[in-house]
Design brief:
Strand order of the largest sheet: 4-1-5-10-9-6-7-8
CATH class: Alpha Beta
Number of domains: 1
Shape: globular
Radius of gyration: 17 Å
Number of helices: 7
Strand content: 15-25%
Helix content: 25-40%
Number of strands: 10
Largest sheet: 8 strands, parallel
Order of helices and strands: EEEEHEHEHHEHEEHEH
Oligomer: single chain
CATH topology: Arginase, Chain A
Structural class: alpha/beta
């Protein structure tokens, strides 16, 4: 078991290229905030500006010997997050928790939503404007574990089946499955949890694991001492009228971050 390091939180309060001021309420004094004056340009060009700043913050924290814990409004932020890990010399295995696959490309997406493509982009599939814009090295598909992903588009499912990504449809599998060797990066999209417990999500999917199951898996991962980085794709603050989704999400990410 590796020695546990201190966690450092980095908040990127954007949904794609749009600022989400309500996420700023999360920040504590010790948190870093990635908030920049965006220049003109197309959506992905503006996102590259955000993710370049995120890359630099993540790299700085890794070099300082801490475990970066990124909180952002969507999963595309993982592009800048991974670029930062790589810039600091880390090449982790990625374990991705999500109700969706995020494995679409422009050829398979029925909606054209960029937020359904980042995992595919990380492994070199589909458009590479954003990964190349932040200097990302392609993540080998066999260095990725995707769990749950209960809501897949037909073409996305084909993409996943043709890949070397390891897919565990049941999150509970990670309670007993052998963990990869070396450092692990956990990406946690909170919509993986059953909406009966965490309802404030923009793209709900029927079913999903109980929070207690996810908590138990997170504890196992934390106890391994292998967690080198954590990223979180947040709840929808506009739908979180009672604060329940925020509270549960942050409690679970704190398990990964060592309490």
């Amino acid at each position: 078991m590796m020695k546990t390091k201190a966690a450092s939180y980095i908040l990127t309060p954007y949904f794609l290229d749009q600022i989400k001021e309500e996420l700023l309420e999360l920040a504590r004094n010790s948190w870093k905030i990635v908030k920049i004056d965006l220049g003109p340009g197309k959506k992905q060009e503006r996102m590259v500006q955000i993710y370049s700043a995120l890359r630099d913050s993540v790299a700085q924290e890794v070099r300082a010997g801490t475990v970066p814990v990124g909180v952002a409004g969507d999963c595309c932020s993982t592009i800048g997050f991974l670029a930062g890990l790589q810039a600091a010399g880390l090449d982790p295995t990625l374990i991705w928790f999500d109700a969706h696959g995020d494995f679409n490309t422009w050829e398979t997406t029925p909606s054209g939503f960029l937020g359904g493509m980042p995992l595919a982009m990380l492994v070199g599939r589909g458009e590479q404007l954003m990964p190349q814009g932040v200097g990302l090295k392609i993540l080998p598909e066999d260095n990725v574990v995707l769990t749950d992903a209960r809501d897949l588009d037909p073409g996305e499912r084909d993409n996943l089946l043709s890949s070397a990504v390891k897919h565990y449809p049941d999150v509970e599998t990670l309670l007993t499955a052998p963990l990869p060797e070396g450092p692990i990066w956990i990406h946690f999209d909170v919509d993986v949890i059953n909406t009966g417990e965490l309802p404030a999500v923009g793209y709900p999917a029927e079913g999903g694991p109980a929070a207690s199951t996810v908590r138990a898996v997170f504890r196992r991962l934390a106890v391994s001492g292998q967690i080198a980085a954590v990223s979180l794709s947040s709840w929808n603050s506009e739908l979180d009228h009672d604060g329940r989704s925020r509270e549960l999400s942050m409690e679970l990410v704190s398990v990964l971050a060592g309490g």
